[in-house]
Amino acid sequence: MCGINGIVDFAAPVDPTPIAAMNEIQRHRGPDGFSTWHTRNVAFGFQRLAIVDIEHGAQPARNEDDTIHVVFNGEIYNHRELRSALAARGHQFRSHSDAEVIPHLYEEYGPGFVERLDGDFAIALWDARRERLLLTRDRVGVKPLFYHRSGSRVVFASEIKGIFASGLVEASMDPQGLSDCLFYGHTIAPRTFWQGVDDLPPATIITIDRRGTSQQRYFTPFLRRDPDAPLLTGRAAIERFDAAFTAAVRKRLPDEVAAGIALSGGLDSSAIAAVAARRCDAPLTTASIRLTGEVLDETPMSRLVAQSLGVPNDEVEMTGARACELLPKSLWHFESPFWYGAVATPFLDLTELARNKGLKVAMSGDGSDELLAGYDFYRLMKLSARFEQLKLGRAQTAIWRNATKWVGAPSGLDSHIVSVAGRRAEYTARYGEVPPWIYLWSALGDTTGPIAPEGLPAPSALAPPPPHDKLRRQLHFEFYTRLPHWVLPISDRLGMANSIEVRVPYLDRDVIDVCADLSPEMLVHWGIEKYALKRATADVLPKQIVRRRKKPFMTPVGPWYLTGSGADLAHDHLSRDSVRRYGIFDPIATERMWRTAVDQSGTWAATAAEWGCLAVMSTHLVLDQFRSVGASIPGDRIEVAS
Question: Are the beta carbons of 29 and 47 closer than 8 angstroms?
Answer without folding.
Answer: yes
